[in-house]
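Write out the 3D structure for:
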Amino acid sequence: MKILRFTLITLIAIACLNSCNFQPTGSHAKLIDINGQKLIDCNISEVTDTINLKLSELVKNCELIPLETNDSSLYKRAWHIGISDNYLAIHSRGQMPIKLFNRQGKFIRNIGKVGRGPGEFGTLYDIQLDETANKLYLLPFARANKVIVYSLDNEILPAIPLAYQQTKFKAHVDNGTLTVLSMPFKVKDQKTIPLAYQQTLDGKIIQEYRGSEHLLINPINADGQFVGFNNEISSSFNTNSFDVFTLKFGGKQYDTLYHYNPKLNELHPRYVATFNEEKQPYWSYELKNHFYTIIFGDKYKGSKVIVDKQTLKSDFFKIENDFWGGLEMKSFYMSNNGYFVCSMLAVDLKTEFENILAGGDIDPKTKNKIEKLQKQIDENDNEILFIGEMI
């Protein structure tokens, strides 16, 4: 009996020792509590590993969509891409109308017109494609006092007046309510606009959230230098939450990604990137199961770090499109409304596919579809999109 008891105790002790000594490999972010809210803090200085992240870990499928090429469909480079079940809306760099394609890449029509007349626009800061309502919402850049609205048939519809004039902003229309996420600049002797608010489609305020002083953006940095209004704001809506991240150049505090909770009319911190050394400017984005950060500072310039929300594992990463022969997604890519999308120039994709085929390490099925596509691509074609629904 004593021997049995000793054996059991020994086995339990060994199991506990092994469990206690087990340390997962790689770097991990920390989960901290801020007034009852869970915030993921990733110290970039402690991240050591670099991984080739397979696209299949982020999306459940990957469509390759060659966009039709003709005189009307061509544009410069994609800047914002709206995706719905049947349509793609492309907002290009520069002053151009929106290009509407179907999901097979066939060009349908231009929407909107550049100019100063009714319904016309100059530079846009974002777009929202709402296929259910048959509408496209256009968010002007600088001194915006309205959201411009078009039908998908290119009919000018009544604009949505903004309760507050905006410089750079994100907005989402749903069920008769406009939710606005603003970039609130600190302006002397003037009342700042709310960081987040909701209004009716005729401009009446429903509720607004102003937050604390540290959320305001000062055009004068910590060294007393004028840095202007070159800060940026983003919101991807990938998790059906109003995520908001504001890049503040020259700010003293680390930039944090928040969620705006309309039911409580509160802003909740969700993710922040920090450094042991001097703060580096960075963008942070939210995916369904990850956060990722793009760093612009000299030491890490162009580096990307991804953090798993569940395991908190943190790695420098490159995206490998394993649906298409391991193609690296190094060109422009973005994510919104639960979709991942990467835009590549036809000439660049043609070269990348040539390199993949020359490498020889590719399965016959993938090789066959790449070879077939290679014959169809011309280097002067429009851009080509990779689109995947997130898991």
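DSSP finds three helices and 29 strands in the chain.
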